[in-house]
Write a structure and sequence with these properties.
alpha+beta; 20% helix; 159 residues; two-stranded antiparallel sheet
Length: 159
């Protein structure tokens, strides 16, 4: 009888332990914060300048991820995507929680296409319309607030 009772207790203990090991753990994502890697200036046709602190997206992983999973960005911040060659590019807002304005920029650093108020989590293609080498993402509404126009130019540098 004693052996039976000990066997049942052991089986119960092992069973509880296995359940605990197999219970899915809640995944938490570490908050992604802005890491300044450079500065960028937008030179407007009226001779005024907009200055930003930027993060750079240059590797395949960085360009695929961009501003995904972030819940905010300061008004004077942005992300500059730097591509090796000038060619047409398409972006989308998958897993991007904040609305954005996108500036598609040619290799000679002229703004060629502006997409305003790209909607969060929308997977609709956002095309450059022309070959570009850079794409700048900023908070939605910035293009209107700063009165940025196609033909304005940029200059950027690494920190």
């Amino acid at each position: 009888m004693r052996l039976l009772l000990l066997s049942l207790l052991f089986i119960g203990f092992v069973s509880c332990k296995n359940k605990a090991e197999n219970t899915p753990k809640e995944l938490t994502q570490e908050k992604i914060t802005f890491s300044p890697e450079g500065s960028l200036e937008i030179f407007k046709k009226d001779s005024s300048v907009v200055s930003l602190s930027i993060e750079l997206a240059e590797t395949a992983y960085e360009t695929e991820t961009g501003l995904m999973y972030r819940d905010s960005m300061k008004p004077d911040q942005g992300m500059l995507f730097v591509f090796e060659d000038e060619q047409p590019h398409n972006f989308y807002m998958k897993n991007t929680y904040i609305p954005l304005d996108l500036f598609f920029i040619t290799k000679d650093q002229k703004i060629a296409t502006i997409i305003k108020n790209a909607r969060p989590l929308d997977e609709t293609s956002l095309p450059s319309e022309v070959p570009v080498q850079y794409v700048l993402e900023v908070n939605a509404g910035s293009a209107a607030t700063w009165n940025i126009q196609e033909g304005d130019s940029i200059s950027w540098k690494r920190n």
